Amino acid sequence: MNVFDLAMQMEKDGEKYYQHLAEKTTNAGMKNILSQLALDEAKHYQVLLKLKESSRAELASTPILTRAKNIFQQLREEKNWDDLPTTQADLYRKAKEIEIQSFKFYMEKAREATDPRVQKMFFLIAEEEKRHEFLLEHILQLVSRPQAWLENAEFNHLDQY
């Protein structure tokens, strides 16, 4: 299996995993964030497919952290944390670990790439995977202690990333 096929399979698996998580939660805000993560993975897949076919692809950065911050703010204002998926913490830990491994994979493959366009795209995807990891860390903190996390407004530093 070549690097593109392997990366594309990883992205498909990630998309399915986030869709699965989104289906399991009843909280609309969390469902929105998880669905956006699934869409990001699908976008990565499409970029990789184009890159594999022609070495030409564009990766538009998604405002996932800004969207998540807005959702966290809404949860705080509505005091809507009763239906947060606190029992799914292990699933979010697994998702975070997947993002860490994806980041490492893309960084390694970017360093190995001889085509500058491929190298650049792998670095860009790695950066986005790192943002996903960052977001998942905050989701883990949220589901571990929702009321305290939202009341302390720890999500306000999502802009700093």
Search tags:
161 residues, mainly alpha, Ferritin, elongated
Describe the model.
The chain has one domain: Ferritin, core subunit, four-helix bundle (Ferritin), CATH 1.20.1260.10. 76% of the residues lie in helices and 0% in strands. The longest helix has 29 residues. The radius of gyration is 16 Å and the shape is elongated. The model has no long low-confidence stretch (mean pLDDT 85).
| Helical/strand content category | mainly alpha
Overall shape: elongated
User: Uncertain segments of ≥5 residues (pLDDT<50)?
Assistant: none
Number of domains: 1
- Can you give the mean pLDDT? 85
Quick recap:
The protein is mostly helical. Helices cover 76% and strands 0% of the residues.
Task: Indicate the topology.
Layout: H1 3-24, H2 28-54, H3 64-78, H4 89-112, H5 116-144, H6 146-151
